[in-house]
Specification:
α7 links the parallel β12 and β13. The protein has a six-stranded mixed β-sheet with strand order 2-1-3-4-7-8, with helices on both faces. A four-stranded mixed β-sheet has the order 10-11-13-12. Strands 5-6-9 form a three-stranded mixed β-sheet, with helices on both faces. The chain has about 250 residues and is α/β, with parallel strands linked by helices. About 25% of the residues lie in helices and about 25% in strands.
C-alpha cells in the first residue's frame, strides 16, 4: 500500500502493490513531515499495518510526489528516475562535462526510513530507492525472479530528467506487466523494449483486440502508449490521475 499526498495526506490513499501490512508514504513538495507522522501514529495505533516507510524526496516541482519518480510495473519490475540511483548519487558513469554541468547532487538525495510497529524505536534506513524497491519485491511480495529496474529516459543524460518531467515514471499497471504510458517518452520506451516489453499504441491495440488478433487475457509485458501532448503539459500522469484504492494485483 502506498500513501501519496497531493493536498491532504489523510484523504488520498493509493495502493500500488498488494501488501496490506506495509504502507509507503511520500514526503515531498506537497506533503509535510508532520502529516506523515500523524499517518504513522494512526496506522500503528489502529493496528492497520505492521510497517510504514517514509520516502522523503527533494521539495522541487520537478518531482512533486513519489508517483513522479517511481511506479511498479510487475511484482519484480519497477520504473524509476535514475537520478536517485546509487550510481547517480556517487556520480558514476557520467562524463567530465556532465559532472560539471549537473554539479553536486547533495540537495537531491532521497531519504528513506522504515518504521516497524513491533520496534518503532529502531527504524531501518535504506541507502537508495533501488534498495527499497528490491526489498519490497523480495520480502513483501516474495518474488523469486530477479528484481529489475527500468530507468526513465533509458538513464541517458539529458533524456532521463527530460522524460521524467513528462511522466515517464508515472505509469499505471492495468495488470501484472501491462502498463499505460505516454507516447512522447521515446528513450523510456527504448528501456522497456530492452527489458523484453512489447511497445504498442493504444489505437493499434484496440483494433487488434476488436479483430481478435490480441486476447487481453493473455496480454503480458506490454507498454501501451497514449497520446500525451496536453496531459503531460498539465503535469498529470496515469498513476496519480487514477487513484486505485483496492487491487487484486500490484
Amino acid at each position: 500500500m502506498i500513501v501519496d499526498n497531493n493536498a491532504n495526506i489523510a484523504r488520498k490513499n493509493k495502493i500500488r502493490y498488494r501488501r496490506k501490512d506495509h504502507v509507503l508514504v511520500g514526503v515531498s513538495e506537497r506533503t509535510s513531515m508532520e502529516a506523515a507522522h500523524q499517518v504513522i501514529k494512526i496506522l500503528f495505533e489502529k493496528n492497520v499495518v505492521k510497517k510504514v516507510t517514509i520516502v522523503k524526496i527533494p521539495k522541487k516541482r520537478d518531482y512533486m510526489h513519489i508517483d513522479t519518480i517511481f511506479t511498479q510495473v510487475k511484482k519484480n519490475v519497477w520504473v524509476m528516475l535514475g537520478s536517485f540511483s546509487k550510481k547517480a548519487i556517487k556520480i558514476e558513469d557520467s562524463d567530465p562535462v556532465q559532472r560539471e554541468l549537473e554539479g553536486s547532487k547533495k540537495d537531491e538525495r532521497i531519504k528513506i526510513i522504515q518504521f516497524k510497529k513491533k520496534n518503532i524505536n529502531k527504524p531501518e534506513y535504506f541507502d537508495s530507492l533501488e534498495d527499497l524497491l528490491a526489498d519490497i519485491s523480495i520480502h513483501d511480495l516474495k518474488c523469486k525472479d530477479k528484481v529489475k529496474l527500468i530507468y526513465s529516459g533509458n538513464n541517458e543524460f539529458p533524456f532521463d530528467t527530460r522524460e521524467q518531467w513528462t511522466d515517464s515514471c508515472n505509469l499505471l499497471a492495468l495488470k501484472e506487466g501491462v502498463v499505460l504510458g505516454y507516447d512522447r517518452n521515446d528513450k523510456t520506451q527504448e528501456a522497456f523494449k530492452n527489458n523484453g516489453f512489447i511497445i504498442i499504441n493504444a489505437g493499434e491495440l484496440i483494433e487488434k483486440i476488436e479483430s481478435g488478433a490480441i486476447d487481453v487475457d493473455t496480454l503480458k509485458d506490454t507498454l501501451i502508449l497514449m497520446p500525451s501532448a496536453e496531459l503531460s503539459r498539465a503535469r498529470g500522469g496515469f498513476h496519480c490521475m487514477s487513484m486505485p484504492l483496492l487491487r487484486d494485483e500490484l
